[in-house]
Amino acid sequence: MAEIQPLVEAVPKIDALLDRDSVTADDAEGLAKQLDALHAALKEPTIANAAKTRGGLNAALDLEIRAQALRDAAQAKAEPRGTPVETETQDLIDGIIVSLARTAREAANAAARELGEPGLATAFELSALYKRRAKKKVEEPAQGG
Predict the structure, then answer these.
(1) Phi/psi zone of residue 116: left (φ > 0), alpha (ψ -120 to 50 degrees), beta?
(2) What does the pLDDT read at residue 54?
(3) Residue-wise pLDDT tens digits, 82-97
(4) First vs last Cα of the chain: how many Å apart?
(5) Cβ-contact 80, 56 below 8 angstroms
(6) Separation between Cα atoms, residue 97 and residue 48, nearest integer Å
(7) What is the spatial distance between Cα 16 and Cα 44, in angstroms, rounded to a whole number?
(8) According to DSSP H, which parts of the chain are helical?
(9) What is the pLDDT of residue 86?
(10) How far is C-alpha 113 from the chain's CA centre?
(11) Which parts of the chain have pLDDT scores under 50?
């Protein structure tokens, strides 16, 4: 039970951060600041302790690298919008966002399994990326007479 206590203490802090930064920023610097906030949260002792066996150190390093990549891409952007360079920059930013969203989903699934709280995994579903398709109805065999 003592091992679970730090995890339980970390949940409200993570929830508060996610609620605060649930809206995506419109520019690279805004996105980088959101990644910085996640990075700072992962370095907080309670959360770092809860995440250390779940890839928290790698996630923190990844967040730091990706935030800097966003800032570098924004600085390198000197071309007008809509150019191949702009499109490439936007693709880079989109890729970083998707990669981090998938990492967050994986961590949430692991935490949900560990804590027995399926709601954690539900909060991180990537429903906008992976639209659910309606299952096809299996036709029952015709009853012959």
Answers:
(1) left
(2) 83
(3) 678 778 888 999 999 8
(4) 63
(5) no
(6) 22
(7) 14
(8) 4-20, 28-43, 45-51, 56-76, 84-115, 118-123
(9) 78
(10) 17
(11) 145
